[in-house]
Design goal:
With 567 residues, the protein is an alpha/beta fold. It folds into 4 domains: 200 residues, NAD(P)-binding Rossmann-like Domain (Rossmann fold), CATH 3.40.50; 88 residues, N-(1-d-carboxylethyl)-l-norvaline Dehydrogenase, domain 2 (Orthogonal Bundle); 136 residues, Rossmann fold, CATH 3.40.50; 105 residues, Jelly Rolls. It contains 17 helices and 25 strands. The strands form 6 sheets. The protein has a 6-stranded parallel β-sheet, with helices on both faces. Strands 11-10-9-12-13-14 form a 6-stranded parallel β-sheet. A 6-stranded antiparallel β-sheet has the order 15-16-17-24-19-22, with no helix packed on it. A hairpin with a 2-residue loop joins β16 and β17. α11 packs across α12. The longest helix has 32 residues. 40% of the residues are buried. Bound molecules: nicotinamide-adenine-dinucleotide. The site of nicotinamide-adenine-dinucleotide has 27 residues, from α1 and α5.
């Protein structure tokens, strides 16, 4: 059998090499000539366990070739696999330009029947569009070759790509064409000899299956991250919760780890594309939208905790970072949580010394030379003299470090573990301050005296508040008061307040008088007035509050009672 693969990235290279390993004659083509030349010498630009050996072995056998010549590739393979990237466009939609470019070059050169299999992750309808474009290009050439466009999404995991491809859990083939099904069944037969794992379905279902799978995985991660935030607030340990929840066979343990957020080339991009597809069809994918925003929040969490631990200022602090790649086993830095943390720390004038077993170079080329950012050759070198260590990627070698040496090496024995690698009790015994995600010590993020950053929603038993903006002498907040809830009776000494009711019907109490308000009403709370808000209704109340004064910190609030017992 002869096949061609368009795009020598993670998916193309792995697919091409694995097909060649089963005896298929494969040409992998790429527009990046430098990449092709390196691949022809057996030099890989990506790190995937087992891939280098596989590529070299099949290059030597002659079954695998690399080329920059599209015509040669299109003439060679009866099946043409599209494995180019589908990056996110400006509004989260998948940018399909590379896919269409390949489709058009296949159409320009095909000498007869071709099976075009789309392995790139593409939204529902993309294969139909590829089919349309090939038909149009053939018509323009005056050629009437038959062809099939099949959705054949790829499910391999970065870091275990070769083994996933060799031992797939399912092979999804979306087409109604008998000829295409027969070809792909034969091509994939060596990969599932024990039992049939080929799922043949219509094209739209195959396209959606890929997005559904990634959205489900992302949902599990964000769900656990959301619960981790709650665990921190109620004094629970998310790892114990995970063990209890995962024991249920209907739920299981996979993808149930709380941490500092998911990254990679797939989950963030595919969830965004799914949300976008839904919107394009007049539908809202509310769960997946929430999954993505929980993940954004989670990626910011480590930095915020570190900042809060150091009293709000990180200027001059040295933070050691273990792990850069978005997950272990790969040097893939796409959407890696480490990038969010590094940017945040540098923006706060902290210094960062990072170590990753394989992704250092890739990170360096991505971020370039940056003041305050350096790379270490080992985990301990990264930790030397640091004010704190942040663990971002769960590489196996970080799981059991020499804790004695680590404590001696760090300037301060403080660890922010974004992957919950260690037991909080053990870390305490070993003399560390240990902050996990949903376990370990809690950072005192809100001691009642600090100001909260704009955009951070701060939850209270009565509802929540969020800073909308602040400047010299003023701050603007949005308050949400849950039905039946009341805020503490209080007084300010250095600011007065204006409330505008955005929705709902609260009762404002001001110096002993009750004022029933409705949407659009405004009330002024002058300096020194004793006041509180109550929501007697069944719907949440939303207020916008403008505070004016020379000092706006929370410790200017004199509370006469504390509705949730903090005072
Ligand atoms: N990386 C993963 O783990 C993974 C897993 C499953 C599915 N996918 C999906 O597979 C697709 C490819 O992902 P990737 O990570 O392999 O991308 P990648 O960026 O690593 O590789 C894409 C390659 O295509 C090449 N290319 C671009 N235009 C070309 C053209 N016209 N002709 C030939 N080559 C061209 C690029 O030079 C690059 O080498 C994406 O849609 C992705 O969502 C990726």
């Amino acid at each position: 059998m002869k096949i061609s693969v368009h795009g020598c990235g993670y998916v193309g290279l792995v697919s091409g090499a694995c097909f060649a390993e089963t005896g298929v004659n494969v040409i992998c083509v790429d527009i990046d000539r430098a990449k092709v030349e390196r691949l022809q010498r057996g030099e890989l630009h990506i790190h995937e366990p087992g891939l280098e050996d596989l590529v070299r072995r099949n290059l030597e056998s002659g079954r695998l070739r690399f080329s920059a010549d599209v015509r040669e590739a299109v003439e060679h393979g009866e099946a043409q696999f599209i494995t180019v990237s589908t990056p996110p466009g400006g509004n989260g939609e998948a940018d399909l330009r590379q896919v269409f470019a390949v489709a058009e070059s296949i159409a320009a050169h095909m000498p007869g029947y071709r099976l075009v299999a789309c392995k790139s992750t593409v939204p529902v309808g993309a294969c139909a569009e590829v089919e349309k474009r090939i038909a149009a290009a053939l018509a323009e050439r005056g050629a009437d070759h038959e062809f099939d466009v099949v959705s054949n999404p790829e499910f391999l995991k970065g870091g275990a790509a070769v083994s996933d491809f060799m031992h797939p859990e399912r092979i999804i083939v979306g087409t109604g064409s008998r000829r295409a099904i027969d070809f792909l069944s034969a091509l994939y037969a060596p990969f599932h000899r024990k039992r049939d794992r080929l799922g043949v379905m219509d094209r739209a279902s195959a396209e959606l299956t890929k997005y559904a799978a990634n959205a489900m995985l992302a949902t599990r991660v964000s769900f656990m991250n959301e619960l981790a935030g709650l665990a921190e607030r109620v004094g629970a340990d998310i790892e114990q919760v995970r063990a209890g929840v995962g024991a249920d066979k209907r739920i299981g343990y996979n993808y149930l780890y709380a941490g500092c957020g998911y990254g990679g080339s797939c989950l963030p991009k595919d969830t965004a594309a799914l949300v976008r597809t839904a919107r394009e069809h007049g539908y809202r994918s509310e769960i997946v939208e929430a999954v993505a925003s929980v993940n954004d929040r989670q990626k910011a969490l480590l930095g915020e905790k570190i900042q809060a631990h150091f009293g709000g200022s990180l200027a001059g602090r040295l933070i050691a970072l273990w792990g850069l790649s978005f997950k272990p086993g790969t040097d893939d830095m796409r959407e890696a949580p480490s990038l969010v943390l590094i940017e945040f720390l540098l923006s706060q004038d902290a210094r960062v010394r990072a170590y990753d077993p394989v992704a250092g170079e890739r990170c360096k080329s991505l971020l370039g030379e940056r003041d305050g950012l350096e790379y270490a050759a080992s985990a301990y070198e990264a930790a030397r003299g640091a004010d704190a260590l942040a663990i971002v990627t769960e590489w196996p070698q970080f799981r059991s470090p020499d804790f004695g040496r680590l404590r001696e090496t760090l300037g301060q024995p403080v660890i922010f573990d974004g992957r919950n690698l260690y037991s909080p009790d053990m870390m305490k015994d070993k003399g560390f301050r240990y902050f996990g995600v949903g376990r370990g010590e809690r950072v005192a993020r809100d001691n009642g005296s600090g100001m909260h950053p704009v955009g951070e929603e701060v939850f209270r038993p009565w509802g929540s508040f969020e800073g909308l903006g602040q400047g010299q002498g003023y701050q603007v907040k949005r308050l949400r008061v849950l039905p039946g809830e009341t805020l503490s009776l209080q007084r300010h000494h250095r600011r007065d307040e204006h409330w505008v009711v955005v929705s709902g019907a609260p009762v404002a109490e001001r110096d002993g008088e009750s004022h029933s308000l409705k949407t659009g009403d405004h009330i002024h709370i002058p300096l020194g007035a004793v006041h509180r808000i109550h929501n007697p209704g069944d719907e949440p109340v939303e207020l916008v509050e403008v505070q004016l004064g020379d000092y706006l910190g929370e410790d200017d609030i004199e509370r006469f009672e504390d509705v949730y017992g903090r005072a």
